[in-house]
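Progress report, Aim 2. The chain analyzed during this reporting quarter is listed below.
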Amino acid sequence: MNTKRLIETFSRYVACDSESGNERRFAELLEGELQALGLTVTRDEVGEKCGSNGFNVYGFLPGEGTPILFSAHMDTVSPGVGIEAVVVDGAIRSKGDTVLGADDKAGIAAVVEAIATVKEQNLSHRPVEVLFTVAEEIGLLGAKYADYSKIQSKEAIVLDNSVVGEMINSAPAMAEIHITVTGKSAHAAMSPSKGIHALKAAAAAVHAIECGHVDDKTVLNVANFLAPGPSNVVPEKASFDIDLRSFDRDVLEQHIINIESAVKTATDAIGASYQMDVNRKADLLSIPPDRPIIGRLQAVLGELGVTPRIEKTYGGSDATWLFANGIDAVNTGIGMTDVHSTDEYITVADLECVTNIVLKMMQ
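Predicted structure tokens for the chain:
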């Protein structure tokens, strides 16, 4: 591994703007660099489905034995335009009022540096596949719509978790629900009885829906409660969103039924109607701890002096869609800290460590 080159690569990557939906220039940069390293590179044209001008980047490097996939996402949250990385006291931060983009360009830089090391040192390695996705931050969309017919691997390392040594093997099924309540407008002073108050029906529904940890496997949150319009008119429309996550698919389905029941009861009570749209953002991630990919990763972490920990999370990652498509995908910590904020940073030591993890897993 060449640490100087690794830092330069990471700095170059974060300097290439790629906020969600605008990943094309970074995808083209990676496409060229992977080709220069000898990978066969294919564009996975998912942009239109994801609301992105970019594409997933798939690459393949022949090797010996069973293939392994490394995956990370190309998009960053905002503010992510004009990022300039600086190294201060062993940590890489952004210079200015932007995120750093270690989420997830640190993972991409580690994979590229590991491949470069394999090539220049002529190291034996497994067949290596890479999948760099668009639109992860806005709903895991690049991974959701990826062309899995290209992928040979049945094992994957996803480089999109914070703490080095953590291995996320379990994540919930997730649903995003949008509810619109329709009533009838009327002048609130002259003829309020002629109206059907959509806002009050929506409020009654929200009141009946429990939030937070609703059971030992599930969290639920209500947000974006809206009923725009003048204050002297009975609201005809109201809407709200629900984020629902559960480690039990059947429990999640029952909560969806309960939510619709609460909305129907509230709207029927005053003669309003409703529409409920359910977007299933991800299915379960559930990799048993005795799977070979976890055992090998634990061994590699031990060799590098890192204490391995198997964890579950309520957060989402591309690993859920890889798993849904028959791949044992473990989301691995890479050391990114204070992500989604202008205080985001990663230490040089962690960036080196995750590169060594990737390199050893390739071998």
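The chain has a mean pLDDT of 97. The longest strand covers residues 173-182. These observations will guide the mutagenesis work planned for the next reporting period.
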